[in-house]
Design brief:
With 420 residues, this protein is an all-alpha fold. 69% of the residues lie in helices and 1% in strands. The protein contains 19 helices and two strands. α6 packs across α9. It is elongated and about 75 Å long. The N and C termini lie far apart (72 Å). Keywords: Sigma factor, Transcription, Transcription regulation. Belongs to the sigma-70 factor family. ECF subfamily. This is RNA polymerase sigma factor. Pfam families: DUF6596 (PF20239), Sigma70_r2 (PF04542), Sigma70_r4_2 (PF08281).
Length: 420
């Protein structure tokens, strides 16, 4: 095996095994930052040994053993050797390297602890996202930086500060107590969906989508659903992401341009992802979670998925689902989406009335989709001059180049008439 082959093998194994590796080490050393350092040391050892000896039969277990050996070496050099060694190797003896073959239950518990630690509320949202992608997604600092269009040094600093913040706050490596678990789980789901959304509709840059981020978020969601199978909102989020991801190929035209939902070729929608999404939604509902925020959004996505052509879309049901969503997760953006559904179900005049009530909403100031929606409704009413102005305003607010061009094209299609 060449050094290049070894590096490729290590990278592939790291992407698959890194979360379990870091989680298992963190349970022992009770320090997420140190756990990742030990895991990285194991990678270096692999790069040194695998070219000569080949990839081991169980590379994940090999890396875990190498990392635990390194942990024991570090402790032996510490003045508090016996106390700390006992903390790490209590069940296996001070002079014995812990066996790499952990039970499935132990691995699952460790992963769940790592999920809650990476998304701990002492960290900023940006830090939670970076740490989650780094430790659970297996992404490199450079990959995270490229995904979010920020300098690599910025991401590196976020990760370093996050580790220090967790250590300073003495955050325990554990699943939160029952009385705070719901709130903490909601934070975890929010981080995963934020990652998905950045991939699904990129905030800035030249690309309309960044599919790799969608895939990472989906993988994290599926893992979480396996770890907490009785939590309906987890299945609701997975359902939402699966169904939205099913449209990925149809959302981009031949030249990378955005294709809006009603203009998409539905034959290009991924039916496997749709079936998986509908199954996850059914699971969420069977667990009593039909009224959860993610389950409601998944139900909305399901309405689109079930419509073979745009004209078959049940906009009345969608409007009702948005109304229910506004009760459990009220926000101006939900109200804007509700207005769109009302406009589709009962006519653009009704929709425009609701949108106009949101024009002075502080939370929507600078939100490009507000004038975009308003422009769409005005265009349907034949008020081309006003629609053009709204599309141009929306184009000036977005930071995504593909979306800006789409909005300017829509403005041009409205003609050059002045607002009435």
């Amino acid at each position: 095996m060449t050094a290049t082959d070894a590096r490729r093998a290590v990278e592939a194994v790291w992407r698959i095994e890194s979360a379990r590796l870091i989680a298992g080490l963190a349970r022992m050393v009770r320090d997420v930052g140190l756990a990742e350092e030990l895991a990285q040391d194991a990678l270096v050892t692999a790069l040194e040994q695998w070219p000569e000896h080949g990839v081991p039969r169980n590379p994940g277990a090999w890396l875990m053993t190498a990392a635990k050996n390194r942990a024991v070496d570090l402790i032996r050099r510490d003045r508090n050797y016996r106390r700390k060694l006992e903390q790490i190797g209590r069940d296996t003896g001070a002079d014995h390297v812990p066996d790499a073959a952990a039970t499935v239950g132990e691995i699952d518990d460790d992963l769940l602890r790592l999920v809650f630690t990476a998304c701990h509320p002492v960290l900023s949202t940006e830090a939670q996202v970076a740490l989650t992608l780094r430790m659970l997604g297996g992404l490199t600092t450079d990959e995270i930086a490229r995904a979010f269009l920020v300098p690599e040094s910025t991401v590196a600093q976020r990760i370093v500060r996050a580790k220090k913040a967790l250590a300073k706050a003495g955050v325990p490596f554990e699943v939160p107590a029952e009385d705070e678990r719901d709130a903490r789980l909601a934070s975890v789901l929010g981080v995963i969906y934020l990652i998905f959304n950045e991939g699904y509709s990129a905030t800035a840059g030249d690309d309309w989508m960044r599919p790799a981020l969608c895939e990472d978020a989906l993988r994290l969601g599926r893992v979480l659903a396996g770890l907490v199978p009785r939590e309906p909102e987890v299945h609701g989020l997975v359902a939402l992401m699966e169904i939205q991801a099913s449209r990925a190929k149809a959302r981009i035209g031949p030249d990378g341009e955005p294709v809006l939902l009603l203009d998409q070729n539905r034959a290009r929608w991924d039916q496997l992802l749709i079936r998986r999404g509908l199954a996850a939604l059914e699971k969420a509902e069977s667990l009593g979670g039909a009224a959860g925020p993610y389950a409601l959004q998944a139900a909305i996505a399901a309405c689109h998925a079930r419509a073979r052509v745009p004209e078959d879309t049940d906009w009345t049901r969608i409007a009702g689902l948005y109304e229910a969503l506004s009760l459990v997760a009220p926000s101006p953006i939900v109200e804007l989406n509700h207005a769109v559904a009302i406009g589709m179900a009962f006519g653009p005049e009704v929709g425009l009335e609701l949108v106009d009530e949101l024009v002075d909403e502080p939370a929507l100031k600078g939100y490009h989709l507000l004038p975009s929606v308003r422009g769409d409704l005005l265009a349907k009413l034949g008020r081309d001059g006003e629609a053009r102005a709204e599309f141009e305003r929306a184009a000036g607010l977005t930071r995504n180049e593909r979306e800006r061009k789409l909005l300017l094209d829509r403005a041009a299609a409205c003609g050059a008439s002045q607002p009435s």
